[in-house]
Amino acid sequence: MTPGATPARLLDAAEELLARYGPAGTSVRDVLRLAGVGNAAAVGYYFGGKDALVAAVERRVVDGVLAERETSLATLSRAPDVDGLVDGWVRPIVELRCAGRGRYAARVFARIFEAPPERWAANGAAATRELALRYCAAVAPLLPHLDERELTWRWQCVTATTDFYAIGALDFGEPAPGAAQVDEHVRRLVVPGSALLRAPAS
Fold first, then answer.
1. Is residue 178 included in any domain, yes or no?
2. Range of 143's domain?
């Protein structure tokens, strides 16, 4: 077994269980069973306990999404466009949802704001909000008909739709998407999201 294999298996298992049942419904015993780890002390040894394992799962997911969004924003900052900025925001979530294990990660990401605000710095919610404001600042010159408050509210609507997609609430009985559907599903979020942003001020 390669170094780090056991912690990675524990993280993968915890991520799946957290996405299905949330922290309250996820036990260390279930994580160990799903990960195929027989040592009952493994979670404590590698992570320090259940709370720290939950935080590690959250940050692994959130940090990955934020890194992709940062890269997209940096690329688009030279020549921003509305569709491109919405794409850069939603694509990491779609990629998670469409990538096997990643569909669980997408649900975990969608749940970070359910935590009390005092946990937002630790679980990445605060960093997500800060990056959202930077995306809003990048798109604002393209949407001069919207004041800052209206633009922020509409960006939150794009984010909420993406989160609904992440948890599967927009599937309407369709099977879970696969890797080949990333671009199709990104467009299904970008088209209405961009239309909402471009719509006349209310």
1. yes
2. 58-198
